[in-house]
Amino acid sequence: MTQFVAAQGMELPAARPTRRGVWPALRRRPLFWSSVTMLLLLVLVSVAPGPIAALFGHPDPRACDLAAGRQAPGGSHPFGTDVQGCDVLAGVLFGTGTSLFIGLMTTVVCLTIALVLGTIAGYYGGWADALIARLTDVFLGFPFLLAAIVVLNSVPDRSPLVLSLVLALFSWPTMARIVRGSVRAVRDSEFVQAATALGLTHGRIVLTHVLPNTLGPVLAIATTMVGSVIVAESTLTYLGVGLVQPSISWGLQLASAQSFFQTAPHMLFFPALFLTITVVSLITLGDILRDALDPKGRS
Fold first, then answer.
1. What pLDDT was estimated at residue 5?
2. How much is the CA Rg of the chain, to the nearest whole Å?
3. What distance in Å separates the CA atoms of residue 284 and residue 232, rounded to the nearest whole number?
4. 262 - beta bridge partners?
């Protein structure tokens, strides 16, 4: 078949994994719809926190009244106020955008690095594979939280972008190994061998045959990673080495509430609730996508 196609001057079409049954499998799962709905609501909140907060009478999370500090939920403050008299609900809504930005930015950077290095290691093998494998071993050898704390303590500006880049610096090796494994599996497929026999360049084979068959499972894992990054950001901020004022995030709210948990538990409860809902929705969606894109799971 390959010789006939080559003789006719034709090219084999890029093979892609079958998507038959993926969408029906997804739409029949209530958890898929609940996760997507919740994430869409969170995206809406992150895009327009001011107008949504204004519906409850407090469009500015920095408009505080010291005399109204640590008020319990109720009245004009549905989530209560913090120690400085700021509306907790407004802070939670404005912190949504910060947390989602850090999670998405970190994942995008990790995914970009992982796709480049993982594809080179998995497709070419040899010394390139060995070199990249040793590089990932070096980064995996650092304890994640300890390494992030050391780097963040040495930077003068801990903005959301800086925090995202630091988290990505120590998060890409695991995803790179996943990409490498997927690329190696696709590289040995018959349609890739046929494309090689037709004389296609390596770059064209990678772009039209290898990557399209690798991205599905990797993107499913990346969805799960977004939730893990949000948890890491909140943890670092809670420990005092993450974001700093005037940034607004769930981690900062949790850090400021730790000393008042017994007297004002609402300060800790509502940011933690939004954080939990976001992370659980992302992890659930990632697990569902991974199962749907796994041919063994659909068989």
1. 37
2. 24
3. 18
4. none
The two tokens of residue 154 are: 């040495």
Residue 271 CB partners (closer than 8 Å, separation 6+):
88, 91, 92, 95, 250, 253, 254, 257
Q: Taking Cα atoms as reference points, which of 8, 55, 35 lies closest to residue 288?
A: 35
State the angle between helix axes of 88-124 and 215-238 in degrees (0 to 180), rounded to the nearest 10.
140
Handedness of CA 259, 260, 265, 269 (dihedral sign): negative
Cis peptide before 246 (omega within 30 of 0): yes
Interatomic CA distance for residues 66 and 83, integer angstroms: 8
* Distance of alpha carbon 75 from alpha carbon 94, whole angstroms: 20
pTM of the model: 0.84
- Average pLDDT, consecutive stretches of 10 residues, N- to C-terminus, the chain (299 residues): 38 45 74 91 93 88 84 88 90 93 94 93 90 92 86 88 93 91 84 77 81 81 89 89 87 87 90 92 87 58
In 3D space, the residue among 114, 131, 123 whose CA is nearest the CA of residue 178 turns out to be: 114
Beta-carbon-side half-sphere exposure of residue 27 (alpha carbons within 13 Å): 4
Structure confidence at residue 278 (pLDDT): 93
